[in-house]
Amino acid sequence: MERKLLIVVLGGGESGVGSAILAQAKGYEVFLSDSGSLKEEYRKTLTDYGIPFEENGHTEQTILAAHEIIKSPGIPNTTAIMQKIIAKGIPVISEIEFGGRFTNAKMICITGSNGKTTTTSLVYHILKSAGFNVGLGGNIGKSFARQVAEDHFDYYVLELSSFQLEGVFDFKADIAVLLNITPDHLDRYDHDMQLYVDAKMRIIRNQKVNDALIYWVDDPVVTKEIRKLKPLSSLLPFSAEKRDDTVAYADNNEVVIHVNNNTFNMDLELLALEGTHNLYNSLASGIVAKLLDIQDETLRQSLADFKGVPHRLEKVAVVRGVQYINDSKATNVNSCWYALQSVRTKIVLILGGKDKGNDYSEIEDLVLRKVRTLIFLGKDNSKLHAFFDGKVPDIKDASSMQEAVSLAYGSAEKGDTVLLSPCCASFDLFESYEDRGDQFKEWVRKL
Which of 17, 144, 318, 418 has its Cβ near the most Cβ atoms within 10 Å? Predict the structure, then answer.
């Protein structure tokens, strides 16, 4: 009997476990390996499926015997095991690439340095409300590969990070949404912005004339790359203001979307999402909806009743006249810029975490104009101090969320906003940005 091809999955989180389930379902021999310990739910799932796995280390002999490697997005190529895999020439792909091989569903794929989770969630909400048979996955929710193995959807709405796009080769987005590209994750890309840009632009890889590319025309990096790469797909640019080349924009306090010889209009004030950055998210989502011929009334209702995304400009409570906002998902400087821009009061700003090669000059002007107090929350705040010391009169350090919230409570004045918008990854003090945001909400509610 012919021996099955061996697929090795590196990483035992949501992405890796889903990939292992799909590989098993498609008749491969599967082995999952994680350098750390697995969460109990994933350990149980692998055991229930009878998928062999290891944790807290890698068995090189087994891994290097693989026909193909499916690498979880959080694993950089610089790890010792990845260096050996690359040296041996074993193909390495992402969960997205692998899952895409086994479904004929239409792919609506969304990336950007900021706004991709909100836009992905909004597009999914619109399609679900319109009665589409649609799955949600990628960098959000349940593993895409696992859904391909266990469900049957006609459409997928996928949030794709640069890490996931690195491992995409034959996968194709039927509709690609490219919101923006600003510096992020530069520690992963040798502090070379172009390497990060190249990863993001893989979202248009393999697109053909019948596919669509929706993008923010005012982003200089995006527009430069589109001019350079000359994609074959239909180009659908959007902007906050009407221009000759835009299909979606705001004009006279209305959202206007002109697609497929139809024009959609909606009062700006009826949008559920507030702020300029969320206008972009709504415009991009509306273009997707009109490409799919979703009725105007359904689209209006969905744009008006969308609940937003946890940890993204999430209003937590008002305590003694001070508004507390959880923007823990702001893991890069540009995200924080949008948050600062959207707040109209004086701000007590909680910053800090694991720095990814950040340049804080982007938020300097807004901080100088709007911020009353800076609170640095991290194991190492030296880079923040080096940039902001002497510029903001009141700067404090905190080593826990409880301490940060307590310091913010003592610093804020009635009418102020306390904003957690860290600019950084969470892994120095917290398990994830969700854990960081949840702790913020917990301590605020105890005030």
Answer: 144
